[in-house]
């Protein structure tokens, strides 16, 4: 399962999953789609995507710059990273988490238009971001938008809370305290 793939309502990666494999899948998907679309995945764009795919938590542009910095070299200029992020967003390879002013890599194929609604489940404990979507949700949202005559600028919903993994850890810690 890729890190943001929704399977049976499980948008978060399982603890101990092979994160290198899911990060590799994000990059392979980007390479394939760029080739199909005639878009250029330049070195800096690839490096920015790699930096974001390296973690399940969203990262701001300056954190991406830190991740890209190499000893003895000048870090990339912020404008360079922002341009790469713009390209990656336009291609649907990363999403912006508005509430965090940060970005997260995406392994879903939303297409370059981004018409499908995206729901981010943001864990306030570990910082992981799960991407969840279902056809039923998309249909319900589209019906609501249509019925209200509203024209959305973006179809992104962010829900903050606590992921199942963190809740499980909390229950285990609570049980340890009670047993002590």
Task: Describe the overall structure.
The protein has helices at 19-37, 43-53, 61-68, 78-90, 135-148, 164-179, and strands at residues 94-97, 102-105, 118-123, 129-132, 156-161. With 180 residues, it is α+β, with helices and mostly antiparallel strands.
Mean pLDDT: 83
Total DSSP helices: 6
Alpha-beta classification: alpha+beta
Cα-based radius of gyration, to the nearest Å: 18 Å
Helix content: 40-55%
Shape: globular
Distance between the termini: 38 Å
- Helix and strand succession? HHHHEEEEHEH
Low-pLDDT parts are 1-8
Could you give the order of strands across the largest sheet?
Answer: 4-3-5
Main beta-sheet strand count, sense and barrel state: 3 strands, mixed
Strand content: 5-15%
Could you tell me the number of beta strands? Answer: 5
List the helices and strands and how they pair.
Layout: H1 19-37, H2 43-53, H3 61-68, H4 78-90, E1 94-97, E2 102-105, E3 118-123, E4 129-132, H5 135-148, E5 156-161, H6 164-179
Parallel strand pairs: 3-5
Antiparallel strand pairs: 1-2, 3-4
Helix pairs in contact: 1-2, 2-3, 2-4, 3-4
Compose a concise summary of this entry:
The protein has 180 residues and is an alpha+beta fold. The protein has helices spanning 19-37, 43-53, 61-68, 78-90, 135-148, 164-179; strands at residues 94-97, 102-105, 118-123, 129-132, 156-161.
What keywords describe this structure?
180 residues; 6 helices; alpha+beta; two-stranded antiparallel sheet; 45% helix; 5 strands
């Amino acid at each position: 399962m890729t890190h943001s793939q929704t399977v049976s309502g499980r948008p978060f990666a399982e603890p101990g999953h092979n994160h290198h494999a899911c990060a590799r899948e994000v990059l392979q998907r980007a390479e394939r789609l760029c080739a199909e679309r005639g878009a250029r995945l330049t070195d800096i764009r690839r490096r920015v995507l790699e930096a974001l795919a390296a973690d399940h938590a969203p990262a701001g542009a300056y954190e991406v710059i830190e991740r890209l910095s190499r000893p003895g070299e000048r870090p990339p200029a912020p404008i360079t990273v922002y341009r790469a992020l713009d390209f990656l967003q336009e291609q649907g390879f990363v999403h912006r988490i508005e509430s965090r002013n940060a970005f997260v890599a995406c392994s879903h194929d939303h297409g370059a238009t981004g018409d499908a609604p995206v729901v981010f489940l943001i864990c306030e404990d570990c910082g992981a971001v799960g991407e969840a979507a279902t056809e039923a949700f998309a249909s319900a949202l589209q019906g609501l938008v249509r019925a209200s005559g509203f024209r959305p600028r973006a179809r992104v919903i962010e829900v903050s809370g606590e992921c199942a993994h963190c809740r499980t850890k909390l229950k285990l810690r609570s049980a340890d305290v009670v047993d002590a």
